[in-house]
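Colleagues,

For the teaching module next term, I've prepared a clean inverse folding example: a structure given as tokens, and then the sequence designed for it. I'd like students to try predicting residues themselves before seeing the answer, so please don't circulate the second half yet.
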């Protein structure tokens, strides 16, 4: 058996999903197989990389033990509610048990139409497949909770988007594919029985210690809120912009999911957005915590009928939870950014905020600033060189040094803390685009090279120099697209 499936989602009632098999592709070829991840999932990497494995991960064969299905969910997209979204171009094959003892979903993306496809073809263009592979694996290497990439396949078929493009099939591994939108789906239809089952199921998968909570729906809301506050703070620590934080793209597990028009900041600008469809900057870098809070309020609304019989009581209880979000996020943000300037706990918040203000004023590259700060206690030059006006920066540096010594933090301690959280290399937008452009011409060398470099993002590596730099003006990515 290729996959030791132990499916639980397929056991849930029919209201949760529709059974549907993947549709075959013409001439599948491997682009990438994640052998290490396969091993963690109890899958034999050689068997996975065989002809049979290719047939399965291209959607041409349904493996033994799989119970392919498309999950139902709703979602608030750019603020407006869509009652029925669901897996329109993804099919869950089943679940396996990770080395850590917990279930993981194995899902094909781009594997053909489902009853949720509406006017879509259920396919993926190659670009989004390569982007999701590179960025999700880079996020994992950077230490951010994320879905993972098990494989990318060249389908041999063309897909029709703005232009005709080669197609691909992506295999995604996730702690689950439960979304805020899954709760909204049942709540909006008044199917509170399914909603109750969903809450119980979600707690079992993601909050086993809360399963016996007195108020399970409230406990789930708290768990999701804590995970999302931490996740968004960590995104921000890397300059990551998700790009489509619709409620259907926000997971209950707290993993980063649905890499669409995502991007990383080059120069620091809190108002930065890349996504072409995000005209008003709803999902801009600095607005992500507000949106997370807004999405959690949609989750709370969906859960209201389970929180208390009386609506006013239910509203009071969820409001008490939601009101904790700003402080919770602030704490997570302070922890993340304190470490980036070498301080433990939340003690570096002020120097971090002052540094960010200087970076913003002087259009400084986000990743490079923190990357050179790692070594600034022994060599200030490369850090200073990033700024146009050095006086305020020298002033900041001396204040920073004094604050470190006032807190009794040695240079070694600060530097090693910064080296653990300030990456040398990130998946820069222009490098991803270049890997995609080559991939469309069937040259996957840039993709593999980038993937290799991104596997150890915190290590200084002379081979990665080119990949550390921000784009030249002509290379700058102006906008990203959903690729749907
Ligand atoms: P997204 O925000 O890109 O994750 O997708 C939003 C919704 O559109 C989901 O229900 C997807 O399943 C659906 N969708 C996106 N692309 C396609 C496609 N090519 N074919 C069918 N459904 C799609
Ligand atoms: Mg989505």
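(Answer key — instructors only)
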């Amino acid at each position: 058996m290729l996959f030791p499936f132990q499916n639980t989602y397929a056991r849930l009632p029919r209201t949760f999903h529709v059974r549907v098999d993947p549709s075959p592709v013409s001439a599948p070829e491997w682009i990438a197989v994640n052998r290490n991840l396969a091993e963690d999932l109890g899958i034999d990497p050689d068997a996975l990389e065989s002809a049979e494995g290719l047939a399965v991960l291209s959607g041409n064969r349904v493996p033994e033990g799989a119970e392919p299905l498309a999950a139902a969910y709703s979602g608030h997209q750019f603020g407006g509610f869509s009652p029925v979204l669901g897996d329109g171009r993804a099919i869950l094959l089943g679940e396996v048990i990770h080395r850590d003892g917990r279930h993981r979903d194995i899902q094909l993306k781009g594997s053909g139409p489902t009853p949720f496809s509406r006017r879509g073809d259920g396919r993926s263009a190659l670009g989004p497949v390569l982007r999701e592979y590179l960025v999700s694996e880079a996020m994992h290497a950077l230490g951010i909770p994320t879905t993972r990439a098990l494989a990318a396949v060249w389908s041999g078929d063309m897909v029709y988007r703005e232009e005709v493009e080669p197609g691909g099939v992506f295999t995604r591994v996730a702690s689950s594919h439960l979304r805020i939108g899954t709760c909204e789906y049942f709540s909006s239809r008044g199917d509170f029985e399914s909603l109750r089952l969903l809450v119980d199921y979600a707690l079992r998968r993601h909050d086993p210690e809360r399963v016996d909570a007195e108020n399970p729906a409230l406990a789930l809301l708290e768990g999701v809120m804590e995970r999302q506050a931490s996740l968004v703070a960590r995104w921000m620590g890397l300059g990551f912009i998700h790009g489509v934080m619709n409620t259907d793209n926000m997971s209950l597990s707290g993993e980063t999911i649905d890499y669409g028009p995502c991007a990383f900041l080059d120069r620091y600008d809190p108002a930065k957005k890349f996504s072409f469809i995000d005209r008003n900057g709803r999902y801009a870098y600095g607005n992500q915590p507000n949106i997370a809070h807004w999405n959690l309020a949609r989750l709370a609304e969906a859960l209201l009928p389970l929180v208390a019989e009386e609506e006013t009581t239910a509203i009071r209880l969820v409001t008490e939870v939601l009101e904790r979000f700003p402080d919770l996020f602030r704490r997570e943000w302070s922890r993340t950014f304190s470490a980036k300037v070498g301080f433990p706990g939340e003690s570096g918040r002020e120097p971090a905020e002052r540094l960010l203000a200087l970076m913003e004023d002087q259009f400084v590259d986000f990743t490079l600033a923190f990357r050179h700060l790692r070594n600034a206690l022994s060599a200030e030059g490369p850090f200073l060189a990033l700024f146009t006006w050095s006086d305020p920066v020298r002033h900041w540096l001396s204040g920073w040094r004094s604050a470190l010594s006032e807190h009794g933090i040695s240079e070694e301690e600060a530097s090693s803390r910064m080296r653990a959280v300030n990456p040398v290399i990130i998946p820069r937008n222009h490098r991803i685009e270049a890997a995609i452009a080559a991939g469309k011409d069937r040259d996957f060398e840039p993709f593999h090279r980038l993937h290799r470099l991104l596997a150890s993002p915190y290590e200084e590596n002379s081979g990665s120099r080119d990949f550390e730099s921000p784009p030249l003006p002509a290379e700058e990515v102006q906008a990203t697209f959903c690729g749907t």
